[in-house]
């Protein structure tokens, strides 16, 4: 199984990049959702 | 929301299935052996990245024409997702190259134009952080994005037009090129899986950008009171 470590590394690093990218989007979305909720509550009710 | 979760679930399943197909269904390549299996991941990511940059380009063109914010959201979403895919291409390429070429990197036309593509879209995102006024930011980055997209056909054509260290194309490469039918099937399945993943990430990023604009508007409204 020559180069198995290289193939393994390529797939794991690649998937890692996508996973971290998705996590940053999810985190930013959750923070914005909380901020949006806070701003809506700070507006006087009509 | 549930549609997006469904798309994410389907994308994850497809990516896992494509990895399985790359390792267990595709036959072993005669000269490179096991390391060639990176091809299914590396080239699929490159194609999905090109598609994401194309979405960015369409968003940029439409913004310049119609000046509607939704096109700017599409532009930035395509750029960021395309950059993630190109980053994976730039990482997996050298991992594949090292055992085969004996070097990690060389400044040939394909590798250099891909690196320039990555730098152009990093610059696109940096440019957006430098301009505060939303309409001006959207217009400037759209104009820059239209210019940046010129590099995509250059990357695609580099191995067709010039002699490079990077292998010649096996898909759409003209006479004398081609793939074993099973390898071709696995490759197109992997490319499809990566495109579904790309669509999911663009949808998520687009929602984030839309929410950011809503938050900014509401913050201004609160401040004005």
Structural class of chain B: mainly alpha
Helix and strand run of chain A: H
The largest interface is: A-B, 29 and 35 residues
Shape of chain A: rod-shaped
Q: Give the terminus-to-terminus CA distance of chain B.
A: 32 Å
Helical run tally of chain A: 1
Unreliable stretches of chain B (pLDDT < 50, length at least 5) are none
Number of DSSP strand runs of chain A: 0
Secondary-structure element sequence of chain B? Answer: HHHHHHH
**Number of helices in the DSSP assignment of chain B:** 7
Spans of at least 5 consecutive residues with low confidence of chain A: none
Q: How many domain regions of chain B? A: 1
- Percent range for β-strand residues of chain B: under 5%
The description of the largest β-sheet of chain A is:
none
Itemize the secondary structure elements and their pairings.
The complex is a heterodimer of chains A (46) and B (225).
Chain A: H1 4-42
Chain B: H1 2-25, H2 38-66, H3 69-101, H4 109-130, H5 134-148, H6 151-161, H7 181-224
Helix pairs in contact in B: 1-7, 2-3, 2-5, 2-7, 3-4, 3-5, 3-7, 4-5, 4-6
What features would you highlight for this structure?
heterodimer, A: mainly alpha, 0% strand, B: 7 helices, 79% helix, globular
Structure, explained:
- The complex is a heterodimer of chains A (46) and B (225).
- Chain A has 1 helix and no strands.
- By secondary structure, chain A is mostly helical.
- Chain A is rod-shaped and about 70 Å long.
- The termini of chain A are far apart.
- The model of chain A has no long low-confidence stretch (mean pLDDT 91).
- By secondary structure, chain B is mainly α.
- Chain B is built from 7 helices and no strands.
- Chain B has helices spanning 2-25, 38-66, 69-101, 109-130, 134-148, 151-161, 181-224.
- The longest helix of chain B has 44 residues, at 181-224.
- Classes of the chains: A mainly alpha (46), B mainly alpha (225).
- Chain A binds chain B through residues 1-4, 6-7, 9-11, 13-15, 17-18, 21-22, 25-26, 28-29, 32-33, 35-36, 39-40, 42-44, and chain B through 15, 19, 33-35, 37-38, 41-42, 45, 81, 84, 87-88, 91-92, 95-96, 98-99, 197, 201, 204-205, 207-208, 211-212, 214-215, 218-219, 221-222, 225.
């Amino acid at each position: 199984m020559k180069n198995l470590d290289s193939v393994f590394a390529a797939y794991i690093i690649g998937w890692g990049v996508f996973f971290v990218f998705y996590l940053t989007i999810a985190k930013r979305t959750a923070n914005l959702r909380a901020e949006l909720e806070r701003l809506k509550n700070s507006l006087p009710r009509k | 929301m549930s549609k997006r979760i469904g798309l994410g679930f389907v994308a994850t399943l497809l990516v896992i299935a494509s990895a399985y197909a790359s390792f267990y269904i595709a036959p072993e390549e005669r000269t490179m052996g096991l390391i060639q299996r990176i091809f299914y991941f590396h080239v699929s990511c490159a194609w999905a990245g090109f598609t994401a940059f194309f979405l960015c380009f369409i968003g940029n063109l439409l913004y310049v024409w119609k000046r509607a914010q939704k096109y700017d959201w599409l532009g930035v979403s395509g750029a960021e997702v395309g950059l993630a895919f190109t980053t994976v291409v730039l990482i997996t390429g050298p991992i594949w190259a090292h055992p085969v070429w004996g070097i990690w990197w060389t400044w040939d036309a394909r590798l250099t134009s891909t690196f320039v593509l990555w730098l152009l879209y990093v610059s696109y995102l940096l440019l957006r952080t430098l301009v505060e006024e939303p309409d001006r930011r959207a217009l400037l980055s759209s104009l820059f994005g239209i210019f940046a997209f010129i590099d995509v056909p250059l990357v695609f054509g580099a191995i067709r037009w010039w002699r490079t260290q990077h292998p010649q194309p096996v898909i759409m490469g003209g006479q004398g090129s081609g793939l074993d039918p099973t390898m071709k099937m696995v490759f197109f399945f992997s490319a499809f899986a990566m495109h579904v993943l790309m669509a999911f990430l663009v949808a998520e990023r687009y929602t984030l950008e839309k929410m950011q604009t809503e938050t900014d508007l509401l913050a201004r409204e609160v401040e004005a009171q």
